[in-house]
Amino acid sequence: MKKNNLKIISIGLITGLINGLFGSGGGTIIVPTMIFLLGIDDHKAHATAIAVILPLTIISTIIYYRQNIIKYDVAFTVAIGGIAGSFIGSNLLNKVPTNILRKIFGSFMIFAAIRLLMK
C-alpha cells in the first residue's frame, strides 16, 4: 500500500472514530487534515468532507438506531432546516474566497470549542 494511501486511511479511521463517539468529524477533522496534510484546495476539502460524511453517518445511524438512542422528533425537524441550509451552502461554497472560507470555518470551530469548554 502506498504511503499516501495509508495516511488517507488513517485520517479516515480517526475521523470515523470521532464521528461515532462525538457525532462530528467530517468537518472538524477531515477538512483541516486534507488542507494541511494532504495539500488539497480548501473548497475541494470542504466538498470532499461532505461526501465522506455520508457513509460515516449511515453506519453511525444504524448503530444508534439499534441502541435506541435517537430523538427522532428532533432529528427530523433539524433535518428539514439542514436540507435547506445544505442546498444554500453548497451553492455558495465556490463563491466564497478561500481566505474568507478559512476565517468563517475557523471561527465556527473556535466558537464551538469555547461553548463546549464552558459547559
Automatic annotation (TrEMBL):
- What is the topology of this protein in the membrane according to its UniProt annotation? Multi-pass membrane protein
The places in or outside the cell where this protein is found are: Cell membrane; Membrane
Pfam families membership: TauE (PF01925)
- Report one GO cellular component: plasma membrane
Is this entry keyworded Ubl conjugation? no
Q: Which UniProt keywords apply?
A: Cell membrane, Membrane, Transmembrane, Transmembrane helix
- At the top level of its lineage, which domain of life is listed? Bacteria
TM segments?
A: 12-40, 46-65, 72-94, 100-118
Query: Record's family?
Result: Belongs to the 4-toluene sulfonate uptake permease (TSUP) (TC 2.A.102) family.
Q: What is this protein called?
A: Probable membrane transporter protein
Species of origin reads Sporanaerobacter acetigenes DSM 13106
Q: Supply the source organism's classification.
A: Bacteria, Bacillati, Bacillota, Tissierellia, Tissierellales
